[in-house]
Design brief:
single chain; alpha/beta; GIY-YIG endonuclease; Rossmann fold; seven-stranded parallel β-sheet; six-stranded parallel β-sheet; binds zinc ion
Length: 761
């Protein structure tokens, strides 16, 4: 037995630095006992004592013990795994994330590992039973529903949520989602509308879902050229695959992986925005690689996720397909990382560490010598700029596979609709214009299907005149938000304020506050105007329903739905040949969000949804209803012209400067007391401005101002926006802020830094 020398640890004692899941930006020094269960190396999980608890951490490397001072290092209790949980590339990624996102290293490591490995030294796969609520009585019409739930609105909410989720869902999930008590569940069961099933495990739909045989397809010359360029690229090189909707980006991914995974025996990660929304894409990977594919989705239990993770670690599975956290899949000998729909905001994590999976993909590919392919029909402006600057190699797929034409897009000017509609029809025509309604009738007669997009209005309301003009901030070029008391218009970036006027300064027409329109309202109107149509709703509210979307989409695929009505999520990845009509109920909603990316998001959404029509030989037609037919997001979406859109949008990001012209950090102060939040936001701003001047960092600090979403779950929110031309200066400032400012211990004040935010809401 050897023990530490009494005069210090310089002698024989081995010390290591451990990252612990604590919100502190540092590691902790521990001593390594002579004998451990398994060898301890950088990346190994360890069990260590913290006060009287046993905590799981990750070894970051050897230590010189300097941080200990005169204290004695406590000994590690266990090294539970035979091999490191984080390989060298993931460990490098963890360090990069902690530095770049100003996130505690221990929390970064915990995020990278499956949940089960964070709580138990040697977790067993879980298999506990679950209570499932199942609809037993169908209430097909709204009338029957009004009757059945006359005095039970909560039961109705529950019933409709359950219906959205495909008719069966775990009780715990439903109760959490609605925030209701289990008595509502019991009420629904008692009245015979639903029953309760005990199920031994969360059902994984991909287990039963037949993968099918890979379709025998010959790549087009453009697809072949893209594949060859990617395969010829140096290890660590990155590509932007810009292909219009329907141009066959997935086939390029498959062909790249066929070479690297099947022929060369390497592994790959495929990121998709949301697994539940892209079952068709996932099926294609499973069809080609069968059992080599691990689908990492949010519906997995902790035990199932751990099983998948271990299988990838051992190399039994070599293709990890999943949403953003799949970027941490423990694949060895990584040959490629694919990021499909790279522009999607869902790649950004909303909590600490606030990473962007697309950016991590580039870093991890570089660390591991893999090729990185970012694919999109409407690339983010950041990636487009990177391609222009040569940091990404640009590859193009300019044509639809099979020579199919992009659908005809008709822009319906709602101002015109208002003018010609009889007075009693005006309100209805703003939702369902005469041309769109006629087109829907036509589809019903021809037994073809339609998709209607209702981009719901958010939390903030803007004012728009009947001529389509919207009040915007003179300094920030974002829409002003309407406030009722006192009545005024406010910029949520810089606090600019102006009175809410009754008539438009541009054209003199009356200004009106734009109010929300719910999917239920629209569904009712559709049922009234198109009796007999089979209408299905897909809501953003029900996203967490694990497989609801897959089931709704399967129903559309089987032709059991005439009209699919939904929010943004219906725009993604769908490919149904019998959908020949797509309607956008109100394009202006997205365009006028108080966010600098509003136009870009609107263009992406309109392009994506327009791409849903006409996937089959019958062709397709798209209607976009708007009051601003001349807005560049509408005009270029109508002609499917991404490059023209970018040519107008990029200059607009130069003055005032927004990404990709500058780098951003979003600093948010929140708390229970509005005044305390505003005061502390001022303190933070002063600190940032002073540091910026003292160290000549050359950044610009904007604010403080209330966030466009001023309050979330009883917490008031204020923000400060920092713009930088150099990333390193921003990193320095943010680390200084998090380490240098003391948070007043009152009103539950919190300070959050979001680097490269996807929205400033
Ligand atoms: Zn402003
Ligand atoms: Zn006007």
């Amino acid at each position: 037995m050897t023990t530490a020398a009494p005069d210090g640890r310089a002698g024989r004692e081995r010390l290591v630095e451990i990252a612990l899941p604590l919100p502190l930006p540092r590691t902790f020094t521990y001593a390594v006992p002579q004998a451990t269960r398994h060898p301890l190396v950088a990346g190994s999980r360890v069990v260590v004592p913290v006060r009287s608890r046993r905590v799981i951490g990750v070894c970051m490397g050897e230590s010189d013990g300097r941080a200990l001072g005169s204290a004695k290092a406590k000994a590690i209790l266990d090294v539970p795994d035979p091999s490191p949980a984080l390989g060298p590339d993931l460990l490098a990624l963890a360090r990069w994330m902690a530095e770049y996102y100003v996130a505690p290293i221990g929390l970064v490591c915990r995020t990278m590992l499956p949940a089960a490995l964070g709580v138990a030294a040697r977790p067993a796969p879980a298999g506990k039973s679950e209570r499932i609520l199942v609809i037993s009585e169908k209430l097909p019409t709204l009338l029957a529903r009004d009757e059945a739930f006359k005095r039970a609105p909560q039961q109705r909410q529950l019933y409709e949520l359950l219906e959205q989720l495909g008719g069966r869902a775990p009780v715990a999930h439903l109760v959490k989602q609605l925030g209701c008590s289990t008595s509502v569940v019991n009420g629904l069961v008692k009245r015979g509308h639903a029953t309760i099933d005990e199920e031994s495990r969360t059902r994984d739909p991909f287990v039963d879902r037949p993968a099918g045989a890979p379709p025998a397809v010959t790549p087009t010359p453009a697809q072949r050229a893209a594949r060859d360029t990617i395969l010829a690229g140096a290890p660590g090189s990155a590509f932007l695959l810009h292909g219009i909707t329907g141009s066959g980006k997935t086939l390029v991914y498959l062909q790249v992986l066929e070479r690297l995974v099947r022929d060369e025996g390497r592994s790959a990660i495929v990121l998709v925005p949301e697994i539940a929304l892209t079952p068709q894409a996932v099926d294609r990977f499973r069809a080609m690689f069968g059992d080599l594919v691990a689908v990492l989705h949010s519906g997995l239990s902790d035990g199932e996720r751990l099983d998948a993770w271990r299988a990838l670690e051992r190399g039994e599975k070599r293709v990890a397909v999943g949403a953003r956290s799949a970027i941490f899949a423990p694949c060895r000998d990584l040959g490629a990382i694919i990021v499909d729909e790279e522009h999607e905001a869902s790649y950004k994590q909303g909590e600490t560490p606030r990473y962007h999976a697309r950016d991590l993909a580039l870093i991890r590919a570089r660390e591991s010598g893999a090729r990185c392919v970012l694919g999109s029909a409407t690339p983010s402006l950041e990636s487009w700029r990177n391609a222009q600057d040569g940091r990404l190699t640009l590859l193009g797929l300019p044509d639809r596979v099979g020579g199919g034409a992009l659908p005809e897009v008709r822009v319906v000017d709602l101002r015109q609709e208002l003018k010609v509609a009889p007075p009693h029809e005006k309100a209805r025509r703003l939702v369902l214009s005469a041309p769109l309604e006629a087109a829907l009738h036509e589809r019903l007669e021809r037994r073809e299907q339609s998709i209607l997009l209702l981009n719901r209005r958010g939390y903030a309301s803007f004012v728009q005149c009947e001529g389509g003009h919207v009040a915007t901030c003179p300094d920030c070029s974002i829409s002003l938000t309407y406030h009722r008391t006192p009545e005024r218009l406010v910029c949520h970036y810089c606090q600019h304020q102006e009175p809410a006027v009754r008539t438009c300064g541009d054209c003199g027409l009356p200004m009106a506050r734009q109010r929300g329109l719910g999917t239920q309202q629209v569904e009712r109107l559709l049922a009234e105007r198109l009796p007999g149509a089979r209408i299905s709703r897909m809501d953003v509210d029900t996203t967490s329903g694990k497989w609801a979307h897959t089931e709704i989409l399967d129903r559309v695929g089987r032709g059991e739905v005439d009209i699919l009505l939904g929010t943004q999520m219906i725009a993604k990845g769908l490919d149904f040949p019998n959908v020949t009509l797509v309607g956008v109920i109100d394009a202006d909603v997205g365009i006028n969000l108080p966010d600098f990316r509003a136009s870009e998001r609107a263009f992406q959404l309109l392009s994506q949804v327009a791409g849903r029509a006409g996937r089959g030989p019958k062709g397709g037609e798209v209607f976009i209803q708007t009051r601003v037919p001349t807005h560049h997001a509408v005009r270029h979406a109508a002609t499917h012209d991404y490059v023209a859109f970018v040519a107008e949008e990029l200059p607009a990001r130069e003055s005032p400067a927004y990404p990709p012209t500058v780098r951003l950090a979003h600093v948010v102060v929140s708390g229970l007391d509005e005044v305390a939040v505003a005061d502390f936001a001022r303190v933070v701003t002063d600190w940032l401005e002073e540091a910026n001047t003292r160290f000549s960092l050359g950044l610009s600090v904007l604010g403080p101002a209330p966030c466009p979403i001023e309050r979330i779950k009883t917490r008031w929110r204020w923000h400060v926006i920092v713009k930088a031309t150099k990333a390193s200066a921003l990193t320095r400032l943010l680390h200084g802020l998090m380490g240098g400012i003391s948070l007043p211990a009152k009103h539950d004040l919190r300070l959050v830094v979001d680097r490269d935010p996807v929205a400033l809401l």
